[in-house]
Queue: 4 jobs
Job 1
Amino acid sequence: MHPRVITVRPLSPFTVELTFADGTRGTVDLSRWIVGSEGVFAALQERAYFRRVTVDPEAGTIVWPNGADLDPDVLYELAQQAHTTT
């Protein structure tokens, strides 16, 4: 189990900057889960709604008001990849 998300900052459409409990920071493109999606992820295609992302401190991941969320372990792996390539 990886460290959990402690801060999120929405950037360009479908991209967020994440900080994890161990200090890892990275920019993660979430478009693969959002673009063309249905269900809870469909609302995230609207820029204003996407920007309503917050951190759920109990789950240690990012969430939106409609209950959409992503696995924090996947986010950590992506943030680490982004961090090592920048």
Job 2
Amino acid sequence: MSKIPENLKYAESHEWMRVDEIDSTATVGVSDHAQQELGDVVFVELPEIGQQISAGDQISVVESVKAASDIFSPVTGEVVAINDTLVDTPELINTSPYLDGWLFKLKVTGENRSDLLTAKQYAEIIADED
């Protein structure tokens, strides 16, 4: 059973997002469900700091022993931080997808996507996939 924290928003493409209400920085990662489906993560391609990205654009790649998966940005913004730790320890995505395994942070410059899901809605989507 996948863990689905209530305080996050989710994309149907299996990214999660947490927005800091103080500075509008969005932290983005892949869901527990996604990391389970991928299997052992062996490589992560991270975006460049300063990169401008639009909501829905492909921004990163996560590779596992099974497959490579594109990561899409849930919001429009500028990359202000990347999780450099994943370069040497990409398996953090498997062991801690919502804490230590985050991918990047964006300074949100556009509207939040209205198609992002609550934890309950996301749980329904992944239940339909199984």
Job 3
Amino acid sequence: MKKSVLLFAALIISFITATSQPCLPNGITFSTQEMIDTFQANYPGCTEIEGNVTIQGAGITNLNGLNVMMSIGGKLEIRSNSSLTSLAGLEGLSSVGGNLFLFNNPLITSLTGLNSLTTIGGYLWIRTNESLTTLTGLESLTSIGDYLEIRSNNALIGLTGLESLTSIGGYLFILENISLTSLAGLNNLANLGGI
């Protein structure tokens, strides 16, 4: 009986280890839709990426294959994706250890998909996303380790989505968002390190 219990416990521990583990200490760059679609098959059990993650490719249309990602130890860059319409697929991501860089994604209208993200260790840079109208999707974000820059998002009309943000370690820059009419959403910001 004792051997059976020990064997069962060993199987459970090995299953947990196999299904949730740190991986990719040197990071990964996704440049094609196929790389995203085959991520789980190529890296089984990879849920906590230790290095940097870059998502950049004209043919990338969705991030659904990344729905197992729970944390990124380094930075996350989502840039120059001319066919990407949504950040859906990143719903499991709760933390980014480094910077989060959202740049030149012309079809994204909101940040829905980042709904579980609570902390960013570095800065959050949201720049030149032509169709971005709202920051909805960041409702769980409570702290940014460095600065927050929101710049040149010409369709952005409000900061709804940042209501849970209470702490920014550095400066806050909101520049050249020509349609922005309100700063509502920053009402709970209590700590701004750059002041």
Job 4
Amino acid sequence: MKIEKIETYRVGDRWLFVEIYTDNGICGLGEAGLWGYPQAAERVIESFKSYLIGQHPLRIEHHQQFLYRNAHFRGAAVSGALGGIDIALWDIAGKHLQAPVWQLLGGKCRERIRCYMHIGGERPQELAASARQAVDKGFTAVRFTPFPRGYEGLRYSRVVEEAVAYVSAVREEVGPDVDLCVEIHRRLTPMEAEGLARELVPFRIFFLEDPTLPDSVQTMGRLAAQIPVPIATGERLHTIFEFRELLEAGACRFIRPDVCLAGGLTQCKKIAALAEAHQVGVIPHNPLSPVSTAACVQLDASIPNFVLQEYTGEDQPPKSEIVRHTLKLEGGYLKVPEEQGIGIELNHEALARYPARQRPLDTPLHEDGSVADR
């Protein structure tokens, strides 16, 4: 069996799919995770074709090492491209061996995957109502950003007051049996994040996600030692070495590897093992398509330290259309699929309805004109 052809498909302003075809008729599906700059990841995949075509697709670890180390250029474009290729190769392996990928990764540690749902609302009451809708659907965890529109123009005290109001409203609405995942989205300085975290202690939040910029693991480690709530971070990291340094710094209680960005299933299985050795849980980042969700579930099912899965809803177009079927969601849990490979296929007929387009660059600014973080 040899790799015969590799195709890429850019869809909308963030999705980049990869299909790898073999000479015996198997097609593997993956997704690249550099959603901010999919054109860059697509160009890296194009450069990888000259090596991959003609290779045996089941030498997954060897191909990962060869492509990552051939020139020792690092970065999200390289790792994102590798993520899409790696997932597609695992999909081929599962189909060739007639087994779901989770079986090849060591078998199931669980029968279903607990998910959290994104909620939203302009004001605390609207956010609380959104949380109630998610809970009524069976979700036992919700995630939200506790800042109003135009936060970047507010003074620190007002930002904290608004955030507390949002979190308080959600906790009051859903009670103690639902976990609250609070996403800061890198918008605060370490000083601001420390102050806000202390104000949120009474609400027993499950985690504070990306409270400050992820550029320095030392800074995140110092912050984690100072605040009384768990930190979740890691969605922008893309190598096992970066995650090792994050864990050694004691910078979080939960890591958030993105399977499509951090080198695919091959690397994320290793990242999860590093976290296990540090008694840190895994909450995979998943802002992309049903292909990403399917890949995440294969990892979630096969690791002992899985905690929660990000789920953004796949019952509405375009997500409901671009694959032939989505994974089954039952009461806030995704059922671990028994199908071969990652368990889903692209719907090529639907892709044309969502042509590639440039993502707008619209980073917010502070009132003095300086750049704010999103």
